[in-house]
Structure formats: structure tokens, C-alpha cells
Design a protein that fits this description.
Metallo-beta-lactamase, Chain A
Length: about 270
């Protein structure tokens, strides 16, 4: 959803990312969505079936471009999956389902079309393509990551972005859950062959382990800063944001406030403030 650190200069986003993953970039750039939402088209190279992850916003042109991208590869979209229910990822899902005749599977029943949902530990197979579902709550309660073992890649939605860091969308998102999810991704990168991050926003990350290490270090640093701000007399989330995020563009302060509220809740739950 959002980058809370200054990003690198603009990187190329969109196009072929791995042998099984192609990105179609949605035209919704903003400080909250970076270059726009990455809609992912997944398929085995020799299959005529494809899976789409996160159709993106309700933008008819974008949704039709995703269908066209599949058709240009000689493929038919057979299934739609959602990493989570935020509108920039899921708003277009119902219309995309109409265009493709597919079901929409998600963890949250509110975002499903069809009877089947998703949960961590599932294995999905479409046209020989294997997708493993990993529960990674924290950014939101319904956040999922999709693992492509054949490419050594994970599609992380907003759990790990291509630039900067994400927010913990309090109260739905919880920092403790988010840290556990990052540790889960760290284990996948260090012990289970995951090399590449295909994020929901921003460019592909070729060093999954380095990216997750950075996220964990950043979270620890921000948590310490929030604790220090409280000790210095900050009594509200707004006061903490003004102190801790003083170097961040003010347009991102509302998102920062959500993360601060999640951090304050975490510190309270652990008896640290």
C-alpha cells in the first residue's frame, strides 16, 4: 500500500519477471501505490491456462489489458487469486471475473466469488503450475503470500514492497502478526530456495533474503523510535508521527499513523510502555 521511506529512483515495473510470471501494471500510481498496482499473470510456459493474482482497481482498460496479455501468450485465465482485500488490489476482481468467467479466491469471504476460499498451507495447481499459499497476516488480517517454487519466487502483495516499506493497517493489521510473517518469509528465503520477491507495488526484488532482513531491521528501528518518543512525552499517535516520521513526506503521515497505532498496541501488549 505505501512506502514510508524515501524510495530509490524510479525503476522499470511491468513485463516478464520470471519464466512463469508477467506483470501488468495498473494505471493507479500514487504515494500510496508507488508506480501502481502490480497485477500478476502466472502460467507454466507450455500451458494454455493462467492464474491472475490481484486484478487491481476497477479500471476497465487495465482489466482488459490483463486479459489481452494472457491471450497474446495463447493462454486463458482459469483462476483469480487475491493477496488481500484492499481496493487497489481487489476492487476490480468482480468485473475481471465477469470478463474471464473465473472464480475469485481469497482468504476473506467478503472478497470471494465462488465457494472456495484460501488459507495458509494450501497447494493450488492450474495447468501444471504449482502455487503454495502462505499465511502472512500483519499488513492486514487477510494478507497472503503466494509461493512459486519452480521460480524460487514469492508474490507478497503489500507484505513486502519493491521500494520502501509497507504499513501495518491498524486495527485490522497487527504488528506481532506482521513480524511473525516476516520471519516466516525469512525462513523461506534462507532455507527453502526463495530468491525473488514479486511485490504488489514497485519493482521485482532479486534478493529476497536481503529484502526481508531490511524489513526486520527497519521494524526494530521504528519500534525503538516509537518507544523513545513515548518516553519523551508523546501521548498520542499524532505526536509520535510528528516526531518519528518528521523526515517523511506529510502525504504519508496518515499511513504512518496507522503503523504507529499498531506499534503502540504492540508495545502495550508486551508491557513495554
Amino acid at each position: 500500500m505505501t512506502s514510508l521511506l524515501p524510495g530509490d529512483p524510479a525503476d522499470t515495473v511491468g513485463g516478464v519477471a520470471t519464466p512463469r510470471a508477467l506483470c501488468v501494471l495498473a494505471p493507479n500510481p500514487s504515494p500510496m501505490t508507488l508506480d501502481g498496482t502490480n497485477t500478476w499473470l502466472l502460467s507454466e510456459p507450455d500451458s494454455d491456462l493462467a492464474v491472475v493474482i490481484d486484478p487491481g482497481p476497477l479500471d476497465e482498460g487495465h482489466l482488459r489489458r490483463v486479459v489481452q496479455a494472457a491471450e497474446q501468450q495463447g493462454k486463458r485465465v482459469a483462476l483469480t487469486l487475491l493477496t488481500h482485500g484492499h481496493h487497489d488490489h481487489a476492487e476490480g476482481a468482480a468485473r475481471f471475473a465477469e470478463l474471464t468467467g473465473t472464480r475469485v479466491r481469497a482468504l476473506d469471504p467478503a472478497h470471494r466469488l465462488g465457494d472456495e476460499g484460501l488459507h495458509g498451507g494450501q497447494r493450488i495447481e492450474v495447468g501444471g503450475l504449482e502455487i503454495r499459499v502462505i499465511g502472512t497476516p500483519g499488513h492486514t488480517a487477510d494478507s497472503l503470500t503466494f509461493h512459486l517454487p519452480a521460480d524460487g519466487a514469492v508474490l507478497t502483495g503489500d507484505t513486502v514492497l519493491g521500494r520502501g516499506t509497507t504499513m501495518v493497517a491498524h486495527p485490522d493489521g497487527r504488528l506481532g502478526d506482521y513480524l511473525d510473517s516476516l520471519r516466516r518469509l525469512h525462513t523461506m528465503a534462507s532455507d527453502h530456495g526463495v530468491r525473488t520477491v514479486l511485490p504488489g507495488h514497485g519493482p521485482v526484488l532479486a534478493d529476497a533474503l536481503g529484502a526481508v532482513d531490511y524489513y526486520l531491521a527497519h521494524r526494530a528501528s521504528r519500534l525503538a523510535q516509537v518507544e523513545t518518543a513515548v518516553e519523551a512525552g508523546c501521548r498520542t499517535a499524532e505526536q509520535v508521527v510528528a516526531r518519528v516520521y518528521a523526515d517523511v513526506d506529510r502525504s504519508l503521515w496518515p499511513a504512518a499513523e496507522l503503523s504507529v497505532r499498531a506499534q503502540l498496541s504492540y508495545l502495550e501488549d508486551h508491557g513495554l510502555i
